[in-house]
């Protein structure tokens, strides 16, 4: 399936509010992405990145345009079918983590598996494996409020990966992490999310993780302004840094 279309988005539009209070968040966004790759969305705050990934995750309906996610239009589904589709096919790393405070870290990570009816013991075992991969072995029984912000971020990342989603959507996945931890987490996201039947779409301001992506999609004022190869973007950034900081 590598190289086949995971996302086909054409002229996607979204407006918040009405009349004089209306704000056009997306103004005809075109985006194509294939299984097996990681696409990074970058641009200034308020340019529409979070709105776009919310639509791509099936969390928000669009006002106009065409969209197919792994062949499915989420807006064509009723609420129940849409929820089931999202539960099975989408993983989302929220910027605010959205962990359930009343249950353990281990149970938080296992939620996607438990919701789809997987065996509890198998689900918790898989969750423990992911927690170890993100450096939280030994914290399985802890409740989220006993963890630092960076640790909670890693729990959220493990939860998003545990069910092997077709489309992994990440909103600033390294925002609460130090540089070294961010690199380790992105290695895991790349390994787990960029398989032949999977795609990663991430929003980031962190130039340190650009090299994990295949393509960089620049957005501004609700539109895609340009799409560049990540290697070229990283090379240009390094060249600019070298000029600013000559030895």
Provide keyphrases for this structure.
247 residues, Rossmann fold, 9 strands, globular
Describe the protein.
The chain is 35% helix and 25% strand. α6 links the parallel β6 and β7 (199-203). The chain is globular and about 45 Å long. The chain has 247 residues and is of the alpha/beta class. α3 packs across α4 (120-133), α3 (105-115) packs parallel to α5 (149-161) and α4 crosses α5 (149-161). It contains seven helices and nine strands. The mean pLDDT is 92. The strands form two sheets. Strands 5-6-7-3-8-9 form a six-stranded mixed sheet, with helices on both faces. It has a three-stranded antiparallel sheet with strand order 2-1-4, covered by helices on one side. It starts with a strand and ends with a helix.
Please identify the structural class as seen in this structure.
alpha/beta
Radius of gyration: 18 Å
Give me the strand/helix succession: EEEHEHEHHHEHEEEH
Sheet with most strands: 6 strands, mixed
Tell me the layout of helices and strands.
Blueprint: E1 5-16, E2 23-34, E3 38-42, H1 49-56, E4 64-69, H2 79-89, E5 90-93, H3 105-115, H4 120-133, H5 149-161, E6 167-171, H6 179-193, E7 199-203, E8 215-220, E9 223-229, H7 230-244
Parallel strand pairs: 3-7, 3-8, 5-6, 6-7
Antiparallel strand pairs: 1-2, 1-4, 8-9
Helix pairs in contact: 3-4, 3-5, 4-5
């Amino acid at each position: 399936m590598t190289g086949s279309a995971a996302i086909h988005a054409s002229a996607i539009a979204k407006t918040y509010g009405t009349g004089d209070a209306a704000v056009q968040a997306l103004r005809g966004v075109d985006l194509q992405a294939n299984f097996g790759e990681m696409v990074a969305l970058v641009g200034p705050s308020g340019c529409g990145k979070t709105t776009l990934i919310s639509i791509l995750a099936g969390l928000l309906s669009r006002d106009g345009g065409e969209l197919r996610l792994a062949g499915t239009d989420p807006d064509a589904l009723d609420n129940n079918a849409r929820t089931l589709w999202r539960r099975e096919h989408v993983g989302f790393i929220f910027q605010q983590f959205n962990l359930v405070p009343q249950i353990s870290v281990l149970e938080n990570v296992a939620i996607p598996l438990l919701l789809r009816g997987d065996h509890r013991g198998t689900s918790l075992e898989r969750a423990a494996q992911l927690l170890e991969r993100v450096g939280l072995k030994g914290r399985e029984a802890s409740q989220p409020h006993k963890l630092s912000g960076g640790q909670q971020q890693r729990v959220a990342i493990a939860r998003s990966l545990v069910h092997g989603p077709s489309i992994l959507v990440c909103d600033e996945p390294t925002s609460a992490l130090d540089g070294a931890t961010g690199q380790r987490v992105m290695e895991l996201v790349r390994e787990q999310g960029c398989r032949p039947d999977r795609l990663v779409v991430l929003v980031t301001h962190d130039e340190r993780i650009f090299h994990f992506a295949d393509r960089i999609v620049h957005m501004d004022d609700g539109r895609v302004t340009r799409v560049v190869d990540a290697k070229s973007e990283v090379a240009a950034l390094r060249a600019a840094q070298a000029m600013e900081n000559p030895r």
